[in-house]
């Protein structure tokens, strides 16, 4: 059974700092990995999707990497802003269209 | 595109009552997923459909839960009878394709409170 772990559970940083969120998974037989953002009381917004054959994806200030062999992914956020405050979840896609979610990292960026 | 649309956004009901949650996926998407989110258990997949056909309902907690997708633009998740432990946020999500291409798009969720 796939298990996804995100560290840290919570993170508080000053505005402008570069930061890294971590995601690890136990079964390397994955199709893809997605990073989502969730604001309080809202649904999940897809940030980046990395296919299993890819090593990284970039969108604006966000960069996500994937290392299947070690079962790890990182989400790098450059020059963080207060508007980046949210919960970030990673989800691993395995057979049967099933996504397994981590518990999330709650990020607070202080002005 | 309007995105995935869910209704109601909030539902408060009493134990034993029937609850019906509704979802309209993004037009053209062929996969539809129902998830439940709680503080204790995080996000759990309940059931998903491909081309309106239920593929995997192993996450449906009990027989009190049922889901239908009568056509490509509408799905329902029904709980009958509801219990306080069903209180959660229920999300509907849709995607086009699977595996190599299935970016998932979520609705805003339906927050259910069972008293």
SSE blueprint and pairings:
The complex is a heterodimer of chains A (111) and B (115).
Chain A: E1 4-7, E2 10-14, E3 19-25, E4 32-38, E5 44-51, E6 56-59, E7 62-67, E8 72-77, E9 86-94, E10 98-101, E11 105-110
Parallel strand pairs in A: 2-11
Antiparallel strand pairs in A: 1-3, 3-8, 4-5, 4-9, 6-7, 7-8, 9-10, 9-11
Chain B: E1 5-7, E2 10-13, E3 19-24, E4 31-38, E5 42-50, E6 53-56, E7 65-71, E8 74-79, E9 88-95, E10 105-106, E11 110-114
Parallel strand pairs in B: 2-11
Antiparallel strand pairs in B: 1-3, 3-8, 4-5, 4-9, 5-6, 7-8, 9-10, 9-11
3D architecture notes:
The complex is a heterodimer of chains A (111) and B (115). Chain A has no helices and eleven strands. Chain A has 111 residues and is an all-beta fold. In chain A, strand 4 (32-38) and strand 5 form a beta hairpin. Chain A is globular, with a radius of gyration of 13 Å. With 115 residues, chain B is mainly β. Chain B is 0% helix and 54% strand. Chain B is built from no helices and eleven strands. In chain B, strands 2, 4, 5, 6, 9, 10 and 11 form a seven-stranded mixed β-sheet that branches. The model of chain B has no long low-confidence stretch (mean pLDDT 92).
DSSP helix fraction of chain A = under 10%
String of helices and strands of chain B: EEEEEEEEEEE
Q: List low-pLDDT spans of chain A.
A: none
Strand content of chain A: over 45%
How many beta-strand segments of chain B? Answer: 11
Q: What is the oligomer described by this structure?
A: heterodimer
Features:
heterodimer, A: 111 residues, mainly beta, six-stranded mixed sheet, five-stranded antiparallel sheet, B: 115 residues, four-stranded antiparallel sheet
């Amino acid at each position: 059974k796939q298990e996804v772990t995100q560290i840290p559970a919570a993170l508080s940083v000053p505005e402008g700092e570069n930061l890294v969120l971590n995601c690890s998974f136990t079964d390397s037989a994955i199709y893809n990995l997605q990073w989502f953002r969730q604001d309080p009381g809202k649904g999940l917004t897809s940030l980046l999707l990395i296919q299993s054959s890819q090593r990284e994806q970039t969108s604006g200030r966000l960069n996500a990497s994937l290392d299947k062999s070690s079962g790890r992914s990182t989400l790098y956020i450059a020059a963080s802003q207060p508007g980046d405050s949210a919960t970030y979840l990673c989800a691993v896609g395995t057979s049967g269209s099933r996504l397994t979610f981590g518990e999330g990292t709650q990020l607070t960026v202080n002005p | 595109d309007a995105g995935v649309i869910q209704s109601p956004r909030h539902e408060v009901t009493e134990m034993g009552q029937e609850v019906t949650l509704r979802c309209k996926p993004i037009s053209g998407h062929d996969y539809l997923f129902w998830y439940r989110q709680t503080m204790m258990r995080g996000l759990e997949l309940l059931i998903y459909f491909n081309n309106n056909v239920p593929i995997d309902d192993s996450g449906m907690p009990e027989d009190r839960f049922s889901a239908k997708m009568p056509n490509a633009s509408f799905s329902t998740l029904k709980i009958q009878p509801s219990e306080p432990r069903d209180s959660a946020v229920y999300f509907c999500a849709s995607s086009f394709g699977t595996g190599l291409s299935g970016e998932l798009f979520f609705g805003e969720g339906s927050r259910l409170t069972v008293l």
